[in-house]
Amino acid sequence: MAYCVHCGVRLDPSEKYCPLCGVPVLDPLQPYQADAKKPYADRHDPVIVRKNRRLTAGMISIILIFPALLCLAIDFSVSRQIDWSLYPTGALLVLWTGLVPPFLWVRPSFRRIFLPFALTGLAYVYLISYLQLNGDWFLPLALPVYLLTAIPTGVITIVFQRRKLSLFYLPAFIMISAGLLSLAIDLLIRSYLEQALRPGWSLFVLLPCIAVALVLVLLARRHALREAVARRLHV
Predict the structure, then answer these.
(1) Are 64 and 95 a contacting pair, CB within 8 Å?
(2) Three-class SS state of 166
(3) pLDDT at res. 51
């Protein structure tokens, strides 16, 4: 029986290096045996990984479902109707669609993950407007703002998954999208409240975003500078 001289972990004859600290094994009484049976598998068992993912999804579901049912029960027991409990229940449902499906799918994709989450969020916004007495703001304000937020987010997700942009072009694209999104939301809000199309606070977001994006594009076009920054960021 051998032990690591550095960290003291027990070593198997099939191990040439310490599995904990990586120090080479040097034991004349127990030399390295390449054909010895290893005490652990070389890779993760896909069945065990799938079970662990389902277990995680089940635990998250229980954590989210229990407070939702509790809110519904309290609401019904007090007022004999379902009223305010729809707000936290809907929010927990949106959170469930964002957290649980990635653990259920073996190969998560944009269609399987992002679209259900976006549609559930849109339904929750409509639920809020429906439960309010003056909920006429959904179509002229909430729906355009939500779509303006969801569409760039979906595009960025697809670009990131497919790696269509390089190290610095992707952050530049995100900064430009964030700046234009803030401008569009600002104009929509002012058009709804003041019936006027003039930018306000969004200019303080748009201009810095453009400046940062231009710097990132400049870094992306200069190979030597790009490599130096990448080494410093360890990417």
Answers:
(1) yes
(2) coil
(3) 74
pTM surpassing 0.85? no
**pLDDT value at position 113?**
85
Name the domain boundary from 130, 163, 186. Answer: 130
3-state secondary structure of 105: coil
Give the residue numbers spanning the domain of 94.
Answer: 46-130
Look-up: residue for tokens 């799918």? 105
Residues 6+ apart with CB under 8 A from 235: 167
Same domain, 121 and 89: yes
Q: What is the mean pLDDT of each run of 10 residues along the chain (235 residues)?
A: 73 73 70 62 58 87 93 91 91 93 81 88 91 82 89 82 73 88 90 83 91 85 64 57
Cβ pair 185, 145 in contact under 8 A: yes
- How many C-beta atoms lie closer than 10 Å to residue 93's C-beta? 19
Name the domain count of the chain.
3
Residue 194 tokens read as: 């003041």
Nearest by Cα to 161 from 110, 86, 224: 110
| Residues 165 and 108 placed together within one structural domain of the fold | no
Q: What is the DSSP string of 169-232?
A: HHHHHHHHHHHHHHHHHHHHHHHHHHS-----TTHHHHHHHHHHHHHHHHHHH-HHHHHHHHHH
